[in-house]
Design goal:
This protein is mostly helical. It is built from eight helices and four strands. Helix content is 47%, strand content 8%. The longest helix has 15 residues. The radius of gyration is 19 Å and the shape is elongated. Pfam families: HTH_3.
């Protein structure tokens, strides 16, 4: 997505939320003229920090806006979104390390008119997908079994076996 497309989508989200540029200014701390320039595509695609502030101001997930801006791997920020990460990121009891997990936070949906749109997944959907074998096997993420990377062919075999067992 380019800056103009991102800006148009941002404006659409803002208007759906019944917010003016002045409202968004108050919520983000950025001037209304700067926000207008972003919405009209006169600025480059925002950096992740600005996207986070825009998302907070708009009341949407920063991961959703990151995806719209074209950041392919949107990470769940454990410190800034602790409720979202419950069950997705966990601390090891032995060394208290935080484990970040990258999940696709949106899915593309083909509309009846043939256009494609992006739908943001809810926190519950993200949690379910993290532990749903079917979803994991279909995600475009690296999967391993006993430290061995699973190829597409191996994933297909696993899906077939699971279908035989459960269906």
């Amino acid at each position: 997505m380019n800056a103009k497309e991102f800006g148009l989508k941002l404006k659409e989200i803002r208007k759906e939320k019944n917010l003016t540029l002045l409202d968004l200014k108050k919520r983000t701390g950025y001037s209304d003229s700067y926000l207008s320039q972003i919405e009209n595509g006169y600025k480059d695609l925002p950096k992740p920090d600005l996207i986070r502030r825009l998302a907070t101001g708009l009341g949407v997930s920063h991961i959703f806006l990151m995806k719209l801006a074209g950041y392919a791997n949107s990470y769940i920020d454990v410190e800034n979104a602790p409720n979202m990460c419950e069950g997705i990121s966990k601390k090891s009891q032995n060394d208290n390390k935080v484990i970040d997990v990258t999940l696709p936070s949106t899915e593309e949906i083909k509309m009846e008119n043939g256009e494609q749109t992006i739908r943001e997944l809810s926190v519950d959907e993200l949690r379910r997908r993290l532990f749903d074998l079917h979803d994991l096997l279909n995600m475009k993420v690296d999967l391993y079994y006993k430290d061995t990377f699973l190829t597409d062919e191996e994933r297909k075999k696993i899906r077939t076996l699971l279908e035989l067992i459960f269906e």
